[in-house]
Each structure stands twice: as structure tokens, then as C-alpha cells.
Write a structure and sequence with these properties.
With 161 residues, the protein is mainly α. It folds into two domains: 6-69, Arc Repressor Mutant, subunit A (Orthogonal Bundle); 88-159, no CATH class. It is 58% helix and 5% strand. The protein has eight helices and two strands. Strand 1 (57-60) and strand 2 (66-69) form a beta hairpin. The chain starts with 5 loop residues before the first helix and ends with a helix.
Length: 161
């Protein structure tokens, strides 16, 4: 089963909360984010630190300090969020980089898994934080568009093999 970690899931929740602010560059404190999302403050602080290191959010100290998005929600791909929290997107070890799998020399599936991984990454890149922050009915439309894109990419990739 393909699944993102809880911390990545929570990161999307926190980023969506920041995206809901009247202005995307409006600063919000970690405690306000914890209260608004129902997440524990230490977890929120840990995630915010990771997101700031990846330059998806900006932080400022002081009286008017807090956290804000580093770019408009429409410009933040979901792939960037997942990569910030979990590292490079790959479905199998061999899809990440050559030499990680002991069976690689005897397996003819590496190219196919790489194509599938690239299609998934393309879909996650096409989906933005703004898409995630929208109500579920409009998010469903985005999901259908991305599903069609993945299907087309996989069909083209496998046909050319």
C-alpha cells in the first residue's frame, strides 16, 4: 500500500491552514496553528521546522513573528510538500537510484516502475496546496483531472516500451 506518513499528512493540514489566512503571507504562531488544527504543539513545531528548512514556509521571531507560506498556495506543488517531509518520491528502491536493489541486475521491471513513479510525481506536481485547501467537491474535480493525466502518461509510457 502506498501511504504518506502521519507527519506528512499533518504538514498538509498545517499548510492548508496557512493557505486559509486572508493573505497567504500573513504570519500565524505555532500555538495558533496547533489550536486551529487540533494537533499537539510539539508536533506542530517539529513539522514547521522541517517545512521552514525546505523553504516552503517562512518564519519570523518576535512580537509580530510566526509562520507564513513562502509562496502563494497555487504555486506550491503537493510533490514539494511530500519531498520536504519524506525525501524524493519513488515507489520502489530501484526507482530512486540505481544500485539500491540487490535484484536489479536480474529484474526487467525497473524501467516500468520508474515510469509509474514519474507519473505519480507528475500528478503530485500538478496538484497544488490551493487544490488541497479547497472544499472536497472542487478537490474532486482536481483529482479527476490528475487521474486522467496519470492514465494518459502511463498509457503512453508503456506503449513506447
Amino acid at each position: 500500500m502506498l501511504r504518506i506518513s502521519k507527519l506528512t499528512d499533518y504538514a498538509t493540514v498545517l499548510l492548508a491552514e496557512l493557505a486559509k489566512q486572508p493573505r497567504w503571507d500573513q504570519r500565524v504562531s505555532a500555538s495558533e496553528l496547533a489550536e486551529a488544527t487540533g494537533l499537539e504543539l510539539p508536533t506542530v513545531a517539529k513539522i514547521l521546522k522541517t517545512l521552514a528548512r525546505s523553504r516552503l514556509i517562512e518564519s519570523a521571531r518576535g512580537v509580530n513573528g510566526g509562520y507564513c507560506l513562502a509562496m502563494a498556495p497555487e504555486a506550491m506543488p503537493v510533490a514539494a510538500i511530500i519531498t520536504a517531509m519524506e525525501g524524493p518520491i519513488a515507489l520502489t528502491e530501484c526507482g530512486l537510484e540505481p544500485g539500491l536493489c540487490s535484484r536489479e541486475r536480474h529484474c526487467g521491471l525497473r524501467g516500468h516502475w520508474q515510469q509509474i513513479g514519474q507519473a505519480v510525481e507528475k500528478a503530485l506536481t500538478a496538484l497544488s496546496l490551493a487544490d488541497l485547501a479547497r472544499p472536497a467537491t472542487t478537490a474532486h474535480d482536481s483529482a479527476l483531472r490528475i487521474k486522467a493525466t496519470i492514465h494518459q502518461d502511463l498509457k503512453q509510457g508503456l506503449a513506447s516500451s
